[in-house]
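in:
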């Protein structure tokens, strides 16, 4: 089991580049596939990015809406996953959630693949 705590959100100007962090507690962080999701006001939660295990080269995947602007990385020694966000626009305003999966790689864009979730951190982008 793993517990997840996000940080790094807040009010950001359009074009800004904040970095979100997700600190994990528990065992065997390196065995989890990690993901970021977000939920904008009045919308369903959506996939943002995912990162595989380090021993599989930490391969990544992104939603089309953030590809080329966001980058997910992980530091297994610190039990932390990051989301570097660049060129933010108001449409990126949302609560951002960190999630962990112990499943074999599958449909990583699906919420159901992830058993563990953080409480979320708000990111508000002002124009």
């Amino acid at each position: 089991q793993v517990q997840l705590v996000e940080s790094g959100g807040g009010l950001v100007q359009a074009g800004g580049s904040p970095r979100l962090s997700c600190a994990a507690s528990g065992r065997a962080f390196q065995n989890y596939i990690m993901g970021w999701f977000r939920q904008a006001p009045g919308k369903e939660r959506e996939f943002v990015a995912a990162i595989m295990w380090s021993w599989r080269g930490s391969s990544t995947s992104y939603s089309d809406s953030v590809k080329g602007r966001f980058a997910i990385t992980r530091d297994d020694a610190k039990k932390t996953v990051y989301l570097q966000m660049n060129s933010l626009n108001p449409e990126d305003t949302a609560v951002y959630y960190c999630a962990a999966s112990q499943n074999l790689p599958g449909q990583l864009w699906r919420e159901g693949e992830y058993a563990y979730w953080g409480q979320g951190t708000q990111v508000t982008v002002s124009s």
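note: The radius of gyration is 14 Å.
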